[in-house]
Structure formats: structure tokens, C-alpha cells
Specification:
GO terms for molecular function: cellulose synthase (UDP-forming) activity. Its main location: Golgi. Pfam families: Cellulose_synt. This protein has 25 helices and 13 strands. It is α/β, with parallel strands linked by helices. The strands form 3 sheets. An 8-stranded mixed beta sheet has the order 5-6-4-3-7-11-9-12, sandwiched between helices. Strands 8-13-10 form a 3-stranded mixed beta sheet. The radius of gyration is 28 Å and the shape is globular. The structure holds uridine-5'-diphosphate-glucose (UPG) and manganese (II) ion.
Length: 732
């Protein structure tokens, strides 16, 4: 490991390109914002304008709020840093046997909405990394406690004996079989026969799993083949079962754990932690903590990769790249984790629901990394095991010397399984630091951000890495309903952190940099941003309808800051999106989603946090569904927004859309009346209202013109019209 002659770092970090120009530009916006605030103060409505002055105060509060949030969002644009590893240097400097053991955790929670075939595709992609298999262990945590998932994993372990050598022989880039077979172009004569064979094996396996699932039982022949099935008897349910740990492939076994070419296979373990009624299981965080303990017994890899069951590995070299950060001689020991962005493979061309959010993933998250405080976001993240054990970072620390390798462990598979089961008992964590100081932190639906903050406050640094070839790809929701439920859970969990003792400004004070504290708040404050947004899409249109002006006249000098801030901010936002790889259409969709999210999901999240603060409800976790019907996915391909359900969120959405339409049309008609406010006074409101109408075009379409199953239900249309009309009439 020629330390002395290798001075070249294993990674470099580079500043974002337009830093200085951006700082100047953002200063001009700040001036504009201050002038807007000043306008609200000096131009306060005179006495006798009762209704107008209340609306005015609201505008002022909303603008203060928008302004402060804008200041917060500057933190992640101020200091953008991109990092690049050199995996060839790593290979030159470290022999195979000097590389650390790596444990990969995959978690699943429900065999119906997270189909076993999808889960094992993720597992197979993780098993076939370009990494010494004897140093690799893959763990599946099954919170669904399902024998179908277990069966699928057994099938995957068999299939891996063919799949891994196939991938390595043909240097397959895409190691998720489903994705590979869907896209493979066969231009290699050598490949033909083997491709045919392996594809057939895969299809057969898939059919066997499908058959078992549709029959709703595992046949006797299959059950007899593996002793593991004996764990499932009539009493086992998802919420009530003993702990199950099965080492399906024991990587230390050089005789049985080999693929068809005689090469070693990685270790493969199935775990369903014990669940008992009355014992909180702490959702994903609980599952990961159980895995941390179980894996420490079996393989104890010093690096842990965490994956959701729907997020597969898309780059066989990702482990080596991540190691460049951890093993860099100068700075590597400082890093607790390396987070990759969440990219998705099922995004349509114009990213209808704004999941492939380029600005968040290419800019904002890299922006926080600029303060050495990249956010851990649950999946696609490599962790240093030590940083999850509650240990504080200290300057003297110089790598994972203390991690005990399990290579020479002489215990049998059975002994290991029995020892591990104890660690997965639901009472194991009682009176321990698990969920507080150790492992992932409990009590929040976004355990990832919270854990990330606590790790950084213990002195560790973290890094964000977005490689050219995406390292991981997941599944994004494909209906608005599912998307909004997910966004609500996030916004709620995030805001809950802000409200708790973990508020970054307090908890992080003196421990992480101010930029990082603000960077966290860009996300933690999603939920309260719903209030000024709702105000802005309700009050100015209503005032417009009644001829009440809330903005300066177009001919006034005060008009300039408003126009400047609005135009400059939006033009810049478009420019930013384009420079991150978006198209104008994607940007437009993202603006629509932003309004939709803020006025519905984030608003409910806000309300829920307040209710929780009052002690009226507890943390829940609605698992995001990963399945849809053919009908729905066809519309998704065509980028037709999917409503279809009568969620209250849609009532709000519909009401706001109708309200803006009524106000715009009403005001336009009234413009001809002599005593109505002049267009010059109302131009800003006409513009705002017009923008809302444009943004909401798909909503009107779903309400009035579409006949498919994804349209807005009649009841929602009715409620929206009634509510919007009432609002228009109620205002004096
Ligand atoms: O009780 C539970 C609930 C969930 N999960 C697993 O957690 C993962 C994430 O759940 P999902 O329903 O897909 O939530 P998402 O909103 O897609 O998850 C995002 O947001 C979470 C925080 O809210 C992060 O933990 C995730 O990594 C991130 O992908 C999935 O693999 C689930 O199987 C469990 O293991 N046990
Ligand atoms: Mn998910």
C-alpha cells in the first residue's frame, strides 16, 4: 500500500462555476426584497380602508416569510461543491485484500406494494458489484415478514450463481436483470446463446415466484426444499412473529457458496426482526438498526451501503468510487457517509410530478455538501459503520482500525443465526441508546435527515456525490395521489425536526456551520411555506375581484422592485434549471408541482405537526406504493395527470383553481364598469391570477373535459365550485 510515494488524493472537490456572479446577482434580489418590505410599511393603507388594511398586513407577513425563506435558500447556492473520485488510483494503491468488507442493507416492508420480484432485482444488482465477493454481504430486512419475499430471495440466490458470472464475463453495465433484459441490444455473437439461456432462467424464476404469489401459498415441494420455511406457521402475521434470520449464502463456505464457474459468492442473509403487538417497531429506522446489529454479528463490514428495495444499483463500480472518499489518506477518515442523489428510472420525458428534480439534486444537495454536511437521505448512501455506533469523531481517529473482522469466526451458520436472532428481538433495544445515540434516530418519519444531523453534530463530515452514470435508480410515484401522500410524510417529518430539540439552529449551533444549519432548513421549512403560498393564491385574486389593489400601480416607482424580484427570480430559476439539465417544460411542470405541493401536501403536513405538538397524534409511516394498474401507467406514459381519487387534497386543489378562474373572469368583466379599479392599479393581481390559471390548466381539464378513470371525480368538481363561489361571495 505504497503510502509514501502516493501523494495524489483519491478524490477532488471543485467549486461550482458561477459562484461570484451569483453572489452579486443575489445581492440585487435582496435589495429588491427589502424595498418590497419597505413599501408595505410606508404605503400602509390609510384609515377608513378597513378590509384593505387586513389584507395588506397579510401580504406583508407573507412577503416577510417568502423573503426569509429566500435568504435561507441562498445558503445552498452560495457554496456549491462537486466532488470527483479517482477509482483507478484506488485500484493502483490498494490490493484486493486491503479493501474493507462492505455490508449492503436492503429493506422491504410489504410484499403486496413492494413486489418480491422487484426486491430481488435490487438484491441481484447489489450482489454483482465489481468487488471481491468474499468481502461483500447483502442483507434483506423484511418488515413484511413474508414467506413470499423469503422464497423470492431463495430463488435469487440460485439465480445469482448464473447471473454474476454472466455479468462479469460480458462486463454487463446494468446489473439489475429486469432492467438489463428490457434494454439489452444483442450485437455480440458470443453473447447470443448465453443471453438466451440466462434470460430464460430469469423468466422461469419470475414465473415461479408469480405463481406462488397468485396461488397465495408456497407449494409443499418448495417448502420441503429449505428448512427456513419452517419459521412460517399459521400464527405468523406481519405484526406478530418471532425474529427470523436465515443465512442463505454463507460467503465463508468455499464449497457451497460458489457460482457455476467455481467463484465465490457474496454472503446473503434474510432477516425479519421480531414484531409483537404493543412494541413500537419504529418503521424503517427500526429495521436498519436491527440490521446494523445482525450484520455486526455475521460479517461486520466497516462500510455499509443502504438501499430501499426499489432502488437498484446502476453502476457496478459504485463501491470502489465511494471508497475513494473513505480511503483518501488525507481527509477520508473525516467522512461518516457518502450520499448519492435519488434518481429514478421511471420518469417521463417532462417529469410530470417533478421527481427528477434537477435543481434539488444537482445544486441544492451539492450546496450543503459545500459545508461538509451532505444530507443522508435514506437510500443510496454509503456509511462508515463506526459513525452509526454513536461514536464521536475525534482528530486522532484514523480509520476503522477497531472494527473486528469476522473472517476467522469459527461459528457455524446455525450458531450465527441463533446469535443474530437475539439481536433482532423487539425487546433488545429496551433501556439502550439504540434510536437515540446509536444507529438511526427514532420518532420521526424522515429518520434519515434527523440521523444525518446527529451524526454531523458529533463531528463527522459527509459528502455528496453525483456521478456521471447514476449509481442508483429507484421508482418514483406515478399518480398525483401517491406523490402527495409521500410529500406530506416528508414535509411533516422535516418540519417536526425543526420544531423539536433537533432544530438545526439550536442543536447544531457551534457544531455545524451556519450555512449547513440554513441548508437543513431549506428542507425542514417546506411545510410552513404552505401558509404564505396559500395566502398569495387566495387573497390577491379575491381582492382583484372586488377591485381592491394590493400592489403598487404600474406607473409607480414602487412597482420596480416587485417586477424585478418576480422576473429576476423566475428567469434565474429557469436558467438554473436549464443549466442543471432540465428543459423549459420540465421547469414549468416543477413550478406547477411546487404550487400543488405547497397548497395541499405541505399544508396538511403543517397542520399535522401542530396537532402532534399538542400531543394529539403519533408518528406514522405510509409506505409508498410501487405498483399500479396498466390503465394508470398508460396515462402516466402520456403525461396525463392522474387524479382519480377523492382525496381532500384534490378538493383544495380544485377550489383554488376555480377560485382563480372566477376571480380572473369576474374582474375582467367588471373592468368595463366605471367605478371599478383601473387596470393600472390591478395589473399585478391580474398577472398573478392569470399565472395560477395557466398553472392549473391540467386541473380544469381533469374536471371538465376528461372522461378517463384518472379525471377528477364529479364530487370534487361540485365541492370546488361551491367552495370557490362561497369565497367569492363572502368577501365584502
Ligand atoms: O416500516 C417500514 C416502512 C418502510 N420500510 C422501507 O423503507 C423504504 C422506504 O419506504 P418508502 O415507502 O419507499 O418511502 P419513500 O418515501 O420512498 O422513502 C424515502 O424517504 C424515506 C424517509 O421518509 C427514506 O428513508 C427513504 O430512503 C427515501 O427513499 C422502503 O424500502 C420500505 O420497504 C421499512 O423497512 N419498514
Ligand atoms: Mn420509496
Amino acid at each position: 500500500m505504497g503510502r509514501d510515494h502516493d501523494h495524489e488524493p483519491l478524490f477532488v472537490s471543485k467549486e461550482g462555476k458561477v459562484r461570484v456572479a451569483y453572489r452579486v446577482f443575489s445581492a440585487t434580489i435582496m435589495v429588491g426584497i427589502c424595498l418590497i418590505w419597505l413599501y408595505r410599511i410606508v404605503q400602509f393603507p390609510r384609515d377608513g380602508e378597513e378590509g384593505r388594511s387586513w389584507a395588506w398586513i397579510g401580504m406583508f407577513i407573507a412577503e416577510l416569510w417568502f423573503g426569509f425563506y429566500w435568504i435561507i435558500t441562498q445558503s445552498v447556492r452560495w457554496n456549491v461543491l462537486y466532488s470527483f473520485p479517482f477509482k483507478d488510483r484506488l485500484s493502483q494503491r490498494y490490493d484486493q485484500d486491503k479493501l474493507p468488507d462492505v455490508d449492503i442493507f436492503v429493506c422491504t416492508a410489504d410484499p403486496v406494494i413492494e413486489p418480491p420480484t422487484m426486491v430481488i432485482n435490487t438484491i441481484l444488482s447489489a450482489m454483482s458489484y465489481n468487488y471481491p465477493p468474499e468481502k461483500l454481504s447483502v442483507y434483506l430486512s423484511d418488515d413484511g415478514g413474508s414467506e413470499f419475499t423469503f422464497y423470492a430471495l431463495l430463488e435469487a440466490s440460485n439465480f445469482s450463481k448464473y447471473w454474476i458470472p454472466f455479468c462479469k464475463k460480458f462486463n454487463v453495465e446494468q446489473r439489475n436483470p429486469e432492467a438489463y433484459f428490457a434494454h439489452v441490444i444483442n450485437d455480440n455473437a458470443d453473447l447470443s446463446q448465453e443471453l438466451f439461456d440466462i434470460k430464460k432462467k430469469y423468466e422461469d424464476m419470475k414465473n415461479r415466484i408469480k405463481l406462488a404469489v397468485t396461488q397465495g401459498r408456497i407449494s409443499k415441494e418448495i417448502r420441503d426444499e429449505h428448512k427456513g420455511f419452517s419459521e412460517w406457521n399459521d400464527e405468523v402475521t406481519k405484526q406478530n412473529h418471532q425474529s427470523i434470520v436465515q443465512i442463505i449464502i454463507d460467503g465463508k463456505d468455499n464449497i457451497n457458496a460458489v457460482n457455476k464457474e467455481g467463484c465465490q459468492l457474496p454472503t446473503l442473509v434474510y432477516m425479519a426482526r421480531e414484531k409483537r403487538p404493543g412494541w413500537p417497531h419504529n418503521f424503517k429506522a427500526g429495521a436498519i438498526n436491527a440490521l446494523i446489529r445482525v450484520s455486526s454479528e455475521i460479517s461486520n463490514g466497516s462500510i455499509i451501503l443502504k438501499l430501499d428495495c426499489d432502488m437498484y444499483s446502476n453502476n457496478a463500480d459504485a463501491i470502489r468510487e465511494a471508497l475513494c472518499f473513505f480511503m483518501d489518506e488525507k481527509r477520508g477518515h473525516e467522512f461518516a457517509f457518502v450520499q448519492h442523489p435519488h434518481w429514478f428510472y421511471n420518469i417521463t420525458k417532462n417529469d410530470l410530478y417533478s421527481y427528477y428534480n434537477h435543481v434539488i439534486h444537482k445544486l441544492e444537495l451539492a450546496g450543503i455538501s459545500g459545508y461538509d454536511a451532505a444530507l443522508y437521505s435514506g437510500t443510496g448512501c454509503f456509511h462508515r459503520r463506526e459513525s452509526l455506533s454513536g461514536k464521536k469523531y475525534s482528530k486522532d481517529y484514523s480509520g476503522d482500525r477497531d472494527i473486528e473482522t469476522k473472517k476467522n469466526d469459527q461459528r457455524s451458520v446455525h450458531e450465527l443465526e441463533e446469535a443474530s436472532k437475539l439481536l433482532a428481538h423487539c425487546s433488545y433495544e429496551k433501556n439502550t441508546q439504540w434510536g437515540k445515540e446509536m444507529g438511526l434516530v427514532y420518532g420521526c418519519a424522515v429518520e434519515d435527515f434527523l440521523t444525518s444531523l446527529t451524526i454531523q453534530c458529533r463531528g463527522w463530515k459527509s459528502i455528496y456525490y453525483n456521478p456521471e452514470r447514476n449509481a442508483f435508480l429507484g421508482v418514483a410515484p406515478i399518480t398525483l395521489d401517491i406523490a402527495l401522500v409521500q410529500q406530506k410524510r416528508w414535509a411533516e417529518g422535516l418540519f417536526q425536526i425543526f420544531f423539536s430539540k433537533y432544530c438545526p439552529f439550536i442543536y447544531g449551533h457551534g457544531k455545524i456551520r451556519l450555512g449547513a444549519q440554513m441548508g437543513y432548513c431549506v428542507f425542514l421549512l417546506w411545510a410552513p411555506m404552505s401558509l404564505p403560498t396559500l395566502y398569495y393564491v387566495i387573497v390577491p385574486p379575491l381582492c382583484l375581484l372586488h377591485g381592491i389593489s394590493l400592489f403598487p400601480k404600474a406607473s409607480s416607482l414602487w412597482f420596480i422592485p416587485f417586477a424585478y424580484v418576480f422576473i429576476a427570480k423566475n428567469v434565474y430559476s429557469l436558467f438554473e434549471a436549464l443549466s442543471c439539465g432540465s428543459t423549459p417544460k420540465i421547469w414549468w411542470n416543477s413550478q406547477r408541482m411546487l404550487i400543488i405541493k405547497r397548497t395541499t401536501a405541505f399544508f396538511f403536513a403543517f397542520i399535522n405537526v401542530i396537532i402532534k405538538q399538542l400531543g394529539l397524534s403519533e408518528t406514522t409511516f405510509a409506505i409508498t406504493s410501487k405498483i399500479v394498474t396498466e390503465d394508470v401507467s398508460k396515462r402516466y406514459e402520456q403525461e396525463i395527470m392522474e387524479f382519480g381519487s377523492s382525496s381532500v387534497m384534490f378538493t383544495i386543489l380544485g377550489t383554488l383553481a376555480m377560485l382563480n378562474l372566477f376571480c380572473l373572469v369576474g374582474a375582467t368583466l367588471k373592468m368595463v364598469l366605471p367605478d371599478f379599479g383601473a387596470l393600472e392599479n390591478l395589473i399585478s393581481q391580474v398577472f398573478l391570477c392569470g399565472m395560477m390559471v395557466l398553472i392549473n390548466l391540467p386541473v380544469y381539464e381533469a374536471m371538465f373535459f376528461r372522461k378517463d378513470n384518472g379525471c377528477l371525480p364529479f364530487s370534487i368538481m361540485l365541492k370546488s365550485i361551491v367552495l370557490a363561489s362561497l369565497a367569492c361571495l363572502m368577501m365584502p
